[in-house]
């Protein structure tokens, strides 16, 4: 719940060209500790400190978050001389995938540095030390991997079972998105900025995010709102590099694959059908395009709309998120039945993986992605969750849990699905290992 009930002051000032913070990459301004980030191609927001925070869970998590943010927004005295989306107070948000279990978090930083259209600014909330020194970034040392809650072979088994269920037991189920996790232990304490810097360097077209210990670089935008304009980038359908195939051949293969096209169509339709209810205009391309990343290629549909101003006010971003989440990019089709099956087949808590992640401001603007290709910090204080299982327990290293998943349809091949999640785990593994 809110950590304060007093009035708060927020001051936003432009950072001038003569200020050393003007030209440094945003992520390099993070001082250390628990970073907050939403950065793509050098623009976005970074933050630190905590002026207010909400932890919530359950089916009402979106409504709780909206009520909390509305109430808190009313308590700010804002002095904003820049006036762009993301200026003034901002809450970084990371919501759980499922109603049960899973904890959601909203964090309002004390300091936010943002950049949009070449304009850089700083927002301070209260009287924090905005000139705080940036501590050197520490590499995590050696990285060792072990099974998470759903090992590779467990994942293969879950995929086989999902295919059986869809073919034989419940033909109404057309798609189930399953995920696999992997535990990484580091010999040194984890400096979250190390991961963020490496992810942003190799995946500049993705959104490099960090909220309350969930870090990653996602290529998927669930919903962006700027005034009455909304935008989404739906992804589903994947190929990955193979010997003897160049990127153009892989892209052609992806576009021609009936299996990937059907996986994609479910996801694009699930987003568009729900979002249409909030919009007076919605543009949904009939054909997907191909999004090329260095580890995978995806089918992508970019959706754009204009919000309907019903009853004097367009819908809030958090209400829209409650309606569109989970799309069939991370849930399945039909949604409710698929989500029930996910819990049965995975038998693990996804936490905030595949949940909405990003930021919202007090003007109703925000950018929210889907938390994919990510790592959940499990022991930020250096302690182990399960001492008996922790190699080198007590040595003060770090532990993260990595996640990646894929859409399963009745003609999915379990071996290919295992290869797909391995390809999707590469960015976060390489970031941990220091590959740039
Ligand atoms: C569920 C994930 O990816 C989604 C997004 C893009 C492509 C996907 C696919 O081809 O299965 C998934 O729908 C993940 O990366 O964990």
UniProtKB/TrEMBL annotation:
<protein>
    <submittedName>
        <fullName>Isochorismate synthase MenF</fullName>
    </submittedName>
</protein>
<dbReference type="InterPro" id="IPR019999">
    <property type="entry name" value="Anth_synth_I-like"/>
</dbReference>
<dbReference type="InterPro" id="IPR005801">
    <property type="entry name" value="ADC_synthase"/>
</dbReference>
<feature type="domain" description="Chorismate-utilising enzyme C-terminal">
    <location>
        <begin position="153"/>
        <end position="424"/>
    </location>
</feature>
<dbReference type="InterPro" id="IPR015890">
    <property type="entry name" value="Chorismate_C"/>
</dbReference>
<dbReference type="Pfam" id="PF00425">
    <property type="entry name" value="Chorismate_bind"/>
</dbReference>
